[in-house]
Design brief:
Helix 2 crosses helix 3 and helix 3 crosses helix 4. This protein has a three-stranded antiparallel sheet. It is mostly helical and 280 residues long. The protein folds into three domains: 61 residues, no CATH class; 76 residues; 66 residues, no CATH class. 9% of the residues are buried. The two termini are 25 Å apart. The protein is built from ten helices and three strands, in the order αααααβααββααα.
Amino acid sequence: MTPLIRILVRNGITFQEFAGALKDIYVTVCAREMNVPGRRMTLSRVAIATGLTRREVAKIIRSEGRTQWGVWSNAGLAASVLEAWHTDSAFLAPYGYPRDLKIDGTDAIPTFEDLVRRFSADVSHEVLIGELVRVGAARVLEGGQYLRVQQRTYIPTNMTAEMIQIFSQAVRRYIETVDFNLGKAKGEEKRFDRMVYPDDGLRLVDVEIYQQEIREYLETVVQEIDQKSATYPRPERKRGEAAVQVGVGIYFYQEVREDKSPLVDSFTDLKEFEDDDLDD
Protein backbone atom coordinates (compact mmCIF):
# COMPACT_ATOMS: atom_id res chain seq x y z
CA MET A 1 0.00 0.00 0.00
CA THR A 2 2.95 2.36 0.52
CA PRO A 3 3.37 3.43 -3.16
CA LEU A 4 -0.40 3.97 -3.43
CA ILE A 5 -0.45 6.21 -0.35
CA ARG A 6 2.47 8.21 -1.78
CA ILE A 7 0.36 8.97 -4.86
CA LEU A 8 -2.71 9.88 -2.80
CA VAL A 9 -0.78 12.23 -0.50
CA ARG A 10 0.94 13.97 -3.43
CA ASN A 11 -2.48 14.60 -4.96
CA GLY A 12 -4.05 16.00 -1.81
CA ILE A 13 -6.28 13.00 -1.05
CA THR A 14 -6.82 12.64 2.70
CA PHE A 15 -7.34 9.44 4.66
CA GLN A 16 -11.00 10.35 5.25
CA GLU A 17 -11.63 10.75 1.51
CA PHE A 18 -9.92 7.48 0.67
CA ALA A 19 -11.73 5.63 3.46
CA GLY A 20 -15.06 7.08 2.28
CA ALA A 21 -14.49 5.76 -1.24
CA LEU A 22 -13.46 2.36 0.12
CA LYS A 23 -16.79 2.04 1.96
CA ASP A 24 -18.64 2.11 -1.35
CA ILE A 25 -16.32 -0.50 -2.83
CA TYR A 26 -16.46 -2.83 0.18
CA VAL A 27 -20.26 -2.86 0.19
CA THR A 28 -20.58 -3.21 -3.60
CA VAL A 29 -18.12 -6.11 -3.82
CA CYS A 30 -19.67 -7.91 -0.87
CA ALA A 31 -23.25 -7.48 -2.15
CA ARG A 32 -22.47 -8.62 -5.70
CA GLU A 33 -19.85 -11.34 -5.27
CA MET A 34 -20.31 -12.91 -1.84
CA ASN A 35 -23.97 -13.85 -2.00
CA VAL A 36 -25.07 -17.40 -1.22
CA PRO A 37 -27.03 -19.16 -4.02
CA GLY A 38 -30.71 -19.44 -3.19
CA ARG A 39 -30.55 -16.84 -0.41
CA ARG A 40 -31.25 -13.13 -0.66
CA MET A 41 -28.55 -10.77 0.56
CA THR A 42 -29.37 -8.86 3.75
CA LEU A 43 -27.97 -5.69 5.27
CA SER A 44 -26.88 -7.67 8.31
CA ARG A 45 -24.80 -10.10 6.26
CA VAL A 46 -23.06 -7.26 4.43
CA ALA A 47 -22.49 -5.40 7.70
CA ILE A 48 -20.88 -8.46 9.29
CA ALA A 49 -18.64 -9.11 6.27
CA THR A 50 -17.50 -5.48 5.90
CA GLY A 51 -17.44 -4.34 9.52
CA LEU A 52 -19.75 -1.40 8.70
CA THR A 53 -23.05 -0.62 10.39
CA ARG A 54 -26.36 -1.62 8.83
CA ARG A 55 -27.20 2.08 8.47
CA GLU A 56 -24.00 2.74 6.49
CA VAL A 57 -24.65 -0.28 4.28
CA ALA A 58 -28.24 0.80 3.61
CA LYS A 59 -27.12 4.31 2.63
CA ILE A 60 -24.61 2.95 0.10
CA ILE A 61 -27.03 0.34 -1.33
CA ARG A 62 -29.73 2.96 -1.88
CA SER A 63 -27.29 5.18 -3.76
CA GLU A 64 -25.99 2.26 -5.88
CA GLY A 65 -22.38 3.10 -5.04
CA ARG A 66 -22.75 6.78 -5.87
CA THR A 67 -22.59 8.12 -2.30
CA GLN A 68 -21.14 11.60 -2.02
CA TRP A 69 -19.17 11.53 1.21
CA GLY A 70 -18.50 15.27 1.20
CA VAL A 71 -15.35 14.98 3.30
CA TRP A 72 -13.49 18.28 3.76
CA SER A 73 -9.85 18.00 2.87
CA ASN A 74 -6.75 20.15 2.71
CA ALA A 75 -7.06 19.94 -1.09
CA GLY A 76 -10.56 21.40 -0.92
CA LEU A 77 -9.40 24.06 1.52
CA ALA A 78 -6.49 25.10 -0.71
CA ALA A 79 -8.76 25.32 -3.75
CA SER A 80 -11.32 27.44 -1.88
CA VAL A 81 -8.65 29.78 -0.50
CA LEU A 82 -7.16 30.37 -3.96
CA GLU A 83 -10.60 30.96 -5.47
CA ALA A 84 -11.53 33.54 -2.81
CA TRP A 85 -8.13 35.22 -3.13
CA HIS A 86 -8.90 35.86 -6.81
CA THR A 87 -12.57 36.82 -6.48
CA ASP A 88 -13.32 38.32 -3.05
CA SER A 89 -13.01 42.13 -3.02
CA ALA A 90 -11.52 42.02 0.51
CA PHE A 91 -8.40 40.36 -0.90
CA LEU A 92 -8.16 42.20 -4.23
CA ALA A 93 -6.05 45.19 -5.16
CA PRO A 94 -7.22 47.96 -7.52
CA TYR A 95 -8.22 46.74 -10.99
CA GLY A 96 -9.24 43.38 -9.54
CA TYR A 97 -5.85 41.75 -9.12
CA PRO A 98 -5.22 39.58 -6.03
CA ARG A 99 -3.04 41.58 -3.69
CA ASP A 100 -0.07 40.40 -1.65
CA LEU A 101 -1.40 39.37 1.75
CA LYS A 102 0.31 39.87 5.07
CA ILE A 103 0.65 36.37 6.50
CA ASP A 104 -0.87 37.17 9.92
CA GLY A 105 -1.43 39.99 12.39
CA THR A 106 -4.20 42.24 13.72
CA ASP A 107 -4.18 44.88 10.99
CA ALA A 108 -7.46 46.33 9.70
CA ILE A 109 -6.61 44.95 6.24
CA PRO A 110 -7.47 41.20 6.03
CA THR A 111 -4.47 38.87 6.21
CA PHE A 112 -3.84 35.43 4.77
CA GLU A 113 -4.71 33.99 8.18
CA ASP A 114 -8.09 35.77 7.96
CA LEU A 115 -8.62 34.26 4.51
CA VAL A 116 -7.95 30.73 5.75
CA ARG A 117 -10.21 31.21 8.78
CA ARG A 118 -13.13 31.90 6.43
CA PHE A 119 -13.06 28.26 5.41
CA SER A 120 -11.49 26.35 8.30
CA ALA A 121 -10.71 26.89 11.97
CA ASP A 122 -8.87 23.58 12.28
CA VAL A 123 -6.08 23.83 9.70
CA SER A 124 -3.16 26.12 10.59
CA HIS A 125 -2.52 28.86 8.03
CA GLU A 126 1.21 28.05 8.30
CA VAL A 127 0.50 24.50 7.17
CA LEU A 128 -1.49 25.73 4.19
CA ILE A 129 1.27 28.18 3.25
CA GLY A 130 3.73 25.28 3.14
CA GLU A 131 1.43 23.32 0.82
CA LEU A 132 0.73 26.27 -1.52
CA VAL A 133 4.44 27.04 -1.75
CA ARG A 134 5.24 23.37 -2.39
CA VAL A 135 2.96 23.18 -5.42
CA GLY A 136 3.94 26.62 -6.73
CA ALA A 137 0.56 28.25 -6.07
CA ALA A 138 2.08 30.96 -3.84
CA ARG A 139 5.44 32.24 -2.63
CA VAL A 140 6.66 34.04 0.45
CA LEU A 141 8.06 37.48 -0.41
CA GLU A 142 11.43 38.75 0.73
CA GLY A 143 11.25 39.57 4.42
CA GLY A 144 8.91 36.69 5.18
CA GLN A 145 5.88 38.78 6.16
CA TYR A 146 3.84 38.72 2.94
CA LEU A 147 2.52 36.02 0.62
CA ARG A 148 2.00 36.42 -3.14
CA VAL A 149 -0.35 34.16 -5.08
CA GLN A 150 1.12 32.52 -8.21
CA GLN A 151 -1.80 30.62 -9.69
CA ARG A 152 -5.57 30.40 -9.33
CA THR A 153 -6.06 26.65 -9.17
CA TYR A 154 -4.67 24.07 -6.77
CA ILE A 155 -2.80 21.33 -8.62
CA PRO A 156 -0.92 19.10 -6.16
CA THR A 157 1.10 17.37 -8.89
CA ASN A 158 1.37 17.29 -12.66
CA MET A 159 -0.61 14.07 -12.75
CA THR A 160 -3.47 14.46 -15.22
CA ALA A 161 -6.83 12.70 -15.24
CA GLU A 162 -5.59 10.57 -18.14
CA MET A 163 -2.51 9.51 -16.16
CA ILE A 164 -4.67 8.57 -13.18
CA GLN A 165 -6.91 6.47 -15.41
CA ILE A 166 -3.95 4.64 -16.95
CA PHE A 167 -2.47 4.00 -13.51
CA SER A 168 -5.73 2.72 -12.03
CA GLN A 169 -6.38 0.41 -14.98
CA ALA A 170 -2.87 -1.04 -14.80
CA VAL A 171 -3.11 -1.73 -11.07
CA ARG A 172 -6.61 -3.19 -11.33
CA ARG A 173 -5.74 -5.51 -14.21
CA TYR A 174 -2.70 -6.92 -12.43
CA ILE A 175 -4.59 -7.45 -9.15
CA GLU A 176 -7.44 -9.14 -11.06
CA THR A 177 -4.88 -11.54 -12.56
CA VAL A 178 -3.52 -12.33 -9.09
CA ASP A 179 -7.07 -12.77 -7.74
CA PHE A 180 -7.95 -15.13 -10.62
CA ASN A 181 -4.84 -17.24 -10.08
CA LEU A 182 -5.31 -17.44 -6.31
CA GLY A 183 -8.81 -18.81 -6.90
CA LYS A 184 -7.59 -21.68 -9.03
CA ALA A 185 -6.98 -25.10 -7.51
CA LYS A 186 -3.71 -26.97 -7.95
CA GLY A 187 -3.38 -28.24 -11.50
CA GLU A 188 -5.93 -25.85 -12.98
CA GLU A 189 -4.72 -23.52 -15.70
CA LYS A 190 -3.88 -20.05 -14.48
CA ARG A 191 -3.29 -16.82 -16.34
CA PHE A 192 0.27 -16.03 -17.33
CA ASP A 193 2.11 -14.25 -14.51
CA ARG A 194 5.89 -14.41 -14.26
CA MET A 195 8.53 -12.40 -12.40
CA VAL A 196 12.19 -12.50 -13.47
CA TYR A 197 14.93 -10.89 -11.40
CA PRO A 198 18.58 -11.38 -10.38
CA ASP A 199 18.53 -13.36 -7.13
CA ASP A 200 21.15 -11.23 -5.41
CA GLY A 201 20.15 -7.91 -7.04
CA LEU A 202 22.51 -5.70 -9.05
CA ARG A 203 25.13 -3.13 -8.28
CA LEU A 204 23.68 0.38 -8.39
CA VAL A 205 26.06 1.35 -11.21
CA ASP A 206 24.69 -1.49 -13.38
CA VAL A 207 20.96 -0.77 -12.94
CA GLU A 208 20.68 1.85 -15.68
CA ILE A 209 22.50 -0.33 -18.22
CA TYR A 210 20.41 -3.38 -17.31
CA GLN A 211 17.19 -1.38 -17.59
CA GLN A 212 18.12 -0.09 -21.04
CA GLU A 213 18.92 -3.60 -22.26
CA ILE A 214 15.59 -4.89 -20.97
CA ARG A 215 13.76 -1.93 -22.53
CA GLU A 216 15.25 -2.56 -25.97
CA TYR A 217 14.49 -6.29 -25.79
CA LEU A 218 10.93 -5.92 -24.54
CA GLU A 219 10.09 -3.28 -27.16
CA THR A 220 10.56 -6.03 -29.73
CA VAL A 221 8.45 -8.46 -27.69
CA VAL A 222 5.66 -5.91 -27.31
CA GLN A 223 5.58 -5.29 -31.06
CA GLU A 224 5.33 -9.03 -31.71
CA ILE A 225 2.46 -9.37 -29.22
CA ASP A 226 0.67 -6.43 -30.84
CA GLN A 227 1.06 -7.99 -34.29
CA LYS A 228 -0.26 -11.32 -33.00
CA SER A 229 -3.36 -9.70 -31.50
CA ALA A 230 -4.02 -7.98 -34.84
CA THR A 231 -4.48 -11.38 -36.53
CA TYR A 232 -7.71 -12.07 -34.59
CA PRO A 233 -11.06 -10.83 -35.95
CA ARG A 234 -12.59 -7.92 -34.06
CA PRO A 235 -15.96 -8.38 -32.31
CA GLU A 236 -18.88 -7.18 -34.43
CA ARG A 237 -21.07 -5.26 -32.02
CA LYS A 238 -23.80 -4.81 -34.63
CA ARG A 239 -24.21 -8.60 -34.64
CA GLY A 240 -24.35 -8.69 -30.86
CA GLU A 241 -20.84 -10.05 -30.31
CA ALA A 242 -19.57 -9.02 -26.88
CA ALA A 243 -16.06 -7.64 -26.55
CA VAL A 244 -13.80 -8.93 -23.76
CA GLN A 245 -10.83 -6.73 -22.87
CA VAL A 246 -7.61 -8.78 -22.76
CA GLY A 247 -3.95 -7.89 -22.92
CA VAL A 248 -0.45 -8.36 -21.57
CA GLY A 249 1.22 -6.00 -19.10
CA ILE A 250 5.01 -5.74 -18.97
CA TYR A 251 6.93 -3.45 -16.62
CA PHE A 252 10.36 -2.97 -15.09
CA TYR A 253 10.50 -2.53 -11.33
CA GLN A 254 13.18 -1.16 -9.05
CA GLU A 255 12.76 -1.52 -5.31
CA VAL A 256 12.68 1.75 -3.39
CA ARG A 257 14.84 2.04 -0.29
CA GLU A 258 12.52 3.42 2.36
CA ASP A 259 13.53 5.45 5.37
CA LYS A 260 13.35 3.12 8.37
CA SER A 261 14.51 5.59 11.02
CA PRO A 262 12.23 5.99 14.09
CA LEU A 263 9.33 8.31 13.30
CA VAL A 264 9.52 9.96 16.73
CA ASP A 265 12.86 11.49 15.72
CA SER A 266 11.19 13.39 12.87
CA PHE A 267 8.64 15.37 14.87
CA THR A 268 9.17 18.58 16.81
CA ASP A 269 5.71 18.88 18.37
CA LEU A 270 5.20 15.32 19.65
CA LYS A 271 5.72 16.46 23.24
CA GLU A 272 2.39 18.32 23.11
CA PHE A 273 0.67 14.97 23.56
CA GLU A 274 1.04 12.96 26.73
CA ASP A 275 1.51 9.22 26.68
CA ASP A 276 -2.08 8.73 27.85
CA ASP A 277 -3.34 10.69 24.83
CA LEU A 278 -1.31 8.52 22.45
CA ASP A 279 -2.75 5.36 24.01
CA ASP A 280 -6.25 6.64 23.27
